[in-house]
Amino acid sequence: MQSVWALLSFGPDGWGDDLAYGVLVTVSLALVTLPLGLLIGFLVALAKQSGEASMRLAGNIYTTIFRGLPELLTLFLVFYGAQIGVQQLVRLVRPEAVVEINSFVAGMIALGVVFSSYASEVFLSAFRAIPRGQYEGGYSVGLSSRQTMRLVILPQLVRIALPGLSNLWLILLKDTALVSAIGLTDIVRQSSIAARVTKHAFMFFGVACLIYLALAIISSFGIGAIERWVGKREAQR
Amino acid sequence: MSASSDTAVKVQRPPSPPRGWSRERIMGWALVGLWSALALSLVVYLFRAWNPELFAKYAPSYLSGLRVTLTLVAVSIVLGAILSLPICYARMSKNRVLNAISYGYVYFFRGTPLLAQTFLIYYGFGSFRPQLEAIGLWSFFREAWYCAVFAFALNTAAYQAEILRGAIESVGKGQWEAASALGLSKLQTLYKIVLPQALIVALRPYGNEVILMIKGSAIVAIITVYDLMGETRRAFSRTFDFQTYLWAALLYLSLVETLRHLVDWIERRITRHLHR
Questions:
Q1: Residues A44, A59 contacting (CB under 8 angstroms)
Q2: Locate the ABC transmembrane type-1 domain: which residues (chain B) (predicted)?
Q3: Most buried pick, A48, A168, A234, B266, via CB within 10 A?
């Protein structure tokens, strides 16, 4: 019976290094997904607040689909669907080719679209909180609509959307646990392996939960710092 | 009199905004066209991949999976609602110890993934098999189904406690004071004054929580509970037919949309007195 500390150590028979690798995968997946989700979410929000009915319809369909599907199902749809789709495309050229989709990329796309559908709602309500006068003011001082967006609207938008987006970041961090189901070696996967080998399941899953808690706490410190920074810029104006 | 109304008719209105084919409009219709093309190709794909044998074999298991999903969500939501009451009470009490314990509970269950919690209970409690056997609880924690219900109920209790707390705190303090001035007891005030107002606020978050639970319940497929997702995975692993996943997606989507519209409808109905 090994002691708990020996099991969690970084040596050759400890699992510390494997768990650390899992943390690295989880954090990098979340960090890579964030900009993708923010970008798509912003574009969808632009479509949903457009004056054009068809644009709004297209944006709303996107949100309805990806907010209504379970995240795990979206992940499988992307993972297997993309695999089958790409395979059929490649087989047109080389009939014997076998395609494997990288599970990291599949996880990034699936979590990105889910994140973006929620983020678009956050951005949309932030857009609605900005009065029309801001756009008209930008127009009257001779800014193009693109310049108005970049120089006048975006800085305010970020400030209003920040609390909602930081909530979504914490949800994203938790959702990355799902990628263990498609074989990516994240925290949950690594602790499952450790649990199976060492038979200390409660300890390893408990450690996994504590790691997620620690990540959440670190994130909330980071979010606090960003909010203070944005608030300071607000005060200077 | 008539002259003034004549001039009113002749007043020049500002020109209506141009309704030409602006770039935005073209792009919007292109996107709608893209969605329609995708929907059409989905229908065509499902039609061409239609296989009566497959359908006869797996349609009943999908239905039973759907039943399992709905039962799981219903049971854990109800158990979570019961469990959330003491947590909410502790969270709002002025007692430091109660407050800290309930805060820790809520923080833990909201800060860690549901998947990790489910694994912790299903696989993790297996580490304590001798002790659990000694107190006769092993037959409970051996079953994936009970573990799933247990984990989900604990998880949703944390969220529901926060929803309830937010809703009760959204009712103004003056309501409590007025009720106490009228001589109502605390419990009477809660039931007759505060809760009717708080539950209107809480309806939408509760609806969202049910939807999140339905979506979250898909993960029980990983611990071998055959809910809708579990049946889908089983069907896919036997047939390697991608339409199995598409049917599941359609089922989940219609379930969630039905619920969302139901919540909208209920909210419109119970807030009729607030609209003018």
A1: yes
A2: 66-263
A3: A168
